[in-house]
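ENTRY TYPE: protein
CONTENTS: sequence, structure tokens:
***
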Amino acid sequence: MIDPVDARLVAEVSRDGRATLAQLAEHVGLSTSAVQARLRRLEADGVISGYRALVDPQALGRPLSAFMEITPLDPEQVDDVPQLLEHLTAVEACHSIAGDASYMLFVRVGTPPDLEALIRDIRRVVNVTTRTTVVLQTFYENRPLLPPDEG
């Protein structure tokens, strides 16, 4: 567990990964050097695992997103689906799930024909059935991951 000051610091960095040390120090009530030391420790401990830019999928020509359940046709086959699909850049996330399907993918493509081609590619690479749900509208995603007492 992290202390309350670290929790506030994590919340602030989660909300704005580009905040300066001075801005963070002001928000959590510490000196910039104390904030820098705490950030380094939180990074070394793996609490903060990295920083990344949020990119607009529309701006990159990938406005169509979908969830895709995949289920192996042969349950006895080697379970290497995540590794076999890793090269497909349209697959943004791959989750092992409980239920009828084995994996839930989150994918982004440009058009419905692109989605159809991706489904074909997935079926060609791994011996699976697929069930795809197209996203009509996203109300929020990439929300900051806040410590429990910050929610």
Observations:
- DSSP finds five helices and four strands in the chain.
